[in-house]
Amino acid sequence: MKYCSECAHPVALLVPDGDNRPRYVCAQCDTIHYQNPKLVVGSIPVWEQADQFKVLLCKRAIEPRHGYWTLPAGFMENAETTAEAAVRETEEEAGANIEIGNLFSLLNVAQVHQVHLFYLARLRDLSFAPGIESLDVRLFAEHEIPWEELAFPTIRKTLELFFADRVKIREEGGGYRFHSHDIVRPMRIESDPH
Amino acid sequence: MKYCSECAHPVALLVPDGDNRPRYVCAQCDTIHYQNPKLVVGSIPVWEQADQFKVLLCKRAIEPRHGYWTLPAGFMENAETTAEAAVRETEEEAGANIEIGNLFSLLNVAQVHQVHLFYLARLRDLSFAPGIESLDVRLFAEHEIPWEELAFPTIRKTLELFFADRVKIREEGGGYRFHSHDIVRPMRIESDPH
User: Fold this and answer.
1) Residue A151's domain spans which residues?
2) Is there a contact between B102 and A6 if contact means CB atoms under 8 Å apart?
């Protein structure tokens, strides 16, 4: 941030009176420009039929992580709820029509000022197709998940927690639980997907 | 937003190519200025001893809702986790030292572009004191909660869910559950606190 978005005067980075953090402050109109973390919201769309149990993933057509696989997710917009954001992103990125379930995971990615949320979801039908931000959209059984080609550590962690819950549910009954996790440093995925 | 924060040129509100929502766009440097919901994070600090069970509330010294009671909470900052934000806000607003627990509630307040999170918390001691944004900080037993003088619908809803869970725990055992709720329209609290 270089200029005040209210009056176009150059801003200065300083700690305002009564505050304890540096902020972009305008000396002309006194506006303090706060910067806060962003929410990234998505879903875990599942297709279950007879003995089939598959999760929908999207291959990214955009940077960062072009060509890597992700759960459908994106930045939450103003004037929507977190569940509405998950449904919208799933429609936009995967052309998929879901019935949204409970919140499954909350992941802090403090280094990049983001909080990621993933909702449980059931695909209503198989009429999905890549949106403009996806190269491909496919269903994966657990043993088919491209673990080495996942786009972000929050996707890997959410899928790990999800399949671990599945095991617990098969063995002990009950349902999916809500999980919270901090990504302490971005995991590096070394292998190239091509 | 009136001017580009990167180059000080006036911005226009228009739908960028490949997008479907109006954004503030700079015609000079092509920056798109996205605006996204903010996270408000707080805690439900509990003091439990013998047959005492009390929740800490803060009386707001700032607008909006000056003079009304709230759980300690505030805007999440960059480079912190949601739990760290809850601990920090509890320290800043109530001078209280908490042991943070699980996430208890997520509340969407889509009209004001906010998502509120509240964590379970245990007061480590009774050395709390109002911070500069609080007029008073007090412990309330359930029957003492000033329901008609609460600052925000997300505070009321979180406290209602919290005490309802307490009843369930007393009757059936188990622990607090995670709750998600949408505030469809801001509740009006008609009575004046003074």
Assistant:
1) 38-182
2) no
Dist. CA B56–CA B137, nearest whole Å: 7
Structure tokens at A139: 């269903």
Contacts with A4 from chain B: Cβ below 8 Å: 3, 5
Which residues of chain B have a CB within 8 Å of the CB of A75?
Answer: 34, 36
Asked if A58 and A136 sit in the same domain, the reply is yes
Residues A150 and A178 in one domain: yes
The phi and psi torsions of A23 (rounded to 5 degrees) equal -130, 160
> Which chain A residues have a beta carbon less than 8 Å from that of B4?
3, 5
Q: Is B188 contained in some domain?
A: no
Q: Does residue B64 have a cis bond before it (omega within 30 degrees)?
A: yes
For B89-143, how does the pLDDT look when each residue is reduced to its tens digit (9 = 90+)? 999 999 999 999 999 999 999 999 999 999 999 999 999 999 999 999 999 999 9
CB atoms within 10 A of CB B21: 11
Q: Which residue has the tokens 């550590």?
A: A153
Q: Is B193 part of a structural domain of the chain?
A: no
Q: What is the pTM of this model?
A: 0.93
Asked whether residue A19 is domain-assigned, the answer is yes
* Alpha-carbon gap: B180 to the closest alpha carbon of chain A (Å): 8
Which of A1, A2, A5, A112 is most worth mutating to test chain B (most B CB atoms within 10 A of its CB)? A5
Closest to B116 measured CA to CA, from B189, B183, B36, B67: B183
Q: Which residues of A touch B18 (CB under 8 A)?
A: 132
Q: Is residue A121 part of a domain?
A: yes
Q: What is the ipTM of this complex?
A: 0.93
Structure tokens of A76? 């939450």
